[in-house]
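Shipment paperwork, digital attachment
Item: protein structure file
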Amino acid sequence: MEVHNGNCAVSARINIDYQGKKPKVSFSYPDKKNQQHGSLFVHILIVWLIINLPLGLYLQWFVEEYSSILLWIYLVVGYLLIYLPFRLFWTKIYPDVQAALSFKKLIVFKPSDVKKEQEYFCELPVFNNVVCDFDAVKDFGKYLKQFEIREHNFKYLGFRKKYVNESLWYARFYFKSKPLNGELRVVFK
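Attachment content:
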């Protein structure tokens, strides 16, 4: 599979190697060319309308009819002045906002949950790749070798072309040896 590098954290593969003195973090993307970027366009619009709702109600009921036109101009132009010049900033903070607004789940891996194929590992089989925070305690932290987030390898058919999956992800934790005590707590969405 081809690897693409970019600056947006949306739909990113993540690989963290814990074998050195300092963890090495790398990001890649399944399909950078057609990558779907998140947007706060609707979120900011809703907040803007809620903030301006009292003004809109006042002008609608107590002022002349032509003020409705001015109100619409104010709402549209004001919103565009808030969103467009700062579009890169809004895109940059999108993953943090998405994570803050999501309902998270918790899974706790015990030593009995560790599997072995070629290496020892624990796996979060399916999640949305919005949040994946973990705390490795005792042997889980001592033997943690690598952490990765990858997309499930399939393509789906859109209108006239196939798209790479950027919706269903898995996370794997690889270990140097089998943890005999402790736990791995993972908060995810």
